[in-house]
Write a structure and sequence with these properties.
six-stranded mixed beta sheet; 252 residues; Deoxyribonuclease I, Chain A; alpha+beta; 5 helices
Length: 252
Amino acid sequence: MKVRLMTYNVHRCVGGDRKLDVERVAEVIEACQVDIVALQELDVGRRRTNGVDQAHRLAELLRMRSHFHPAMHVEGERYGDAILTALPERLVKTGSLPGLPRLPGLEPRGALWVAVDLGGVELQVINTHFGLVPKEQQAQAAALIGESWMASEAFDGPAVLLGDFNATPFSQTYRMLTAVMRDAQAGGPKAAVATFPSGFPLLRIDHVFLAGAITVTAVESPFDPRSRAASDHLPLVVELEISAARSSPAAP
């Protein structure tokens, strides 16, 4: 079965033009015709973005369902990540990721795991947003690779880990993740796509990692004026062919 996934840091739906526009972000996503959307930096009930539940509103505009995990609470306000899809799905787990206790003030980080039913084959999907400090990223990667997440028995069959990792392919964080999964953009016929900053993308810090019986059939990143303006990141879209055969996700 073919499925199209997107990872997209939406920067609380505030674009490079400093305009808050949830509908514009939804238009960017809809134009890519994706089945599963992993979003980072969503505001839910925050005064700075007019109190809108951005995860719910985007899901409503896209005619999808959403699962949201607040990595950070600010009194009654929340900020975090979400997975949206119209396919049958179930929430497996949400949780926080480790930070650096000796560096107080770092933004809390988390992850969100949803299993999506693709006609009888479950695709395990984990969305995350790593920190900015390399040692912090490495601790977060180690947590995801560990028994509470990807090394657990529930992380079985074809699997995807995607999000904003704030880590380039030259980083130790990237090498830790590609030791257990494969980069969807590695070894393709085309040059890998950078997504940050959106106006002039130079850095490849948004990634899609794969495990199991999955074939990459296309990798895209829209670069039209609307996509360049909607956030400080461009979306990364990966089209996959999922085999019905079961295989261990631990093997790259």
